[in-house]
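In response to the reviewer comment on reproducibility (Comment 2.3), we provide here a single inverse folding case reported in full, input and output, so that an independent group could reproduce the run without further information from us. The structure tokens appear first.
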């Protein structure tokens, strides 16, 4: 049996609603479950929004946790590339020290 399109459609919430939902939850000191029931949203959605939009999810310079994690991944990749370059240069230096320039 197939479900009707109405049952499968997903609710879409704009960014402003998500931010206000997180703010309401944190200011009212309600549990995640209580807040999600009052707002009529899935608990997992509200949890994800809280991770993204809560004041605690921002660093001192205003970056969100997700932005910081993305930057961290980028920097780790760049560090690995630089470490590989240094290792190659060390090998080349050792080779030329042993074999000379010509």
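Designed residues, in position order:
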């Amino acid at each position: 049996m197939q479900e009707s399109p109405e049952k499968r459609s997903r609710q879409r919430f704009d960014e402003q609603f998500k931010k206000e939902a997180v703010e309401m939850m944190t200011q009212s000191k309600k549990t995640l479950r209580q807040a999600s029931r009052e707002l009529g949203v899935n608990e997992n959605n509200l949890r994800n929004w809280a991770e993204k939009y809560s004041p605690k999810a921002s660093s001192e310079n205003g970056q969100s946790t997700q932005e910081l994690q993305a930057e961290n991944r980028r920097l780790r990749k760049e560090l690995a590339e630089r470490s590989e370059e240094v290792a190659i240069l060390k090998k080349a230096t050792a080779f030329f020290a042993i074999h000379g320039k010509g």
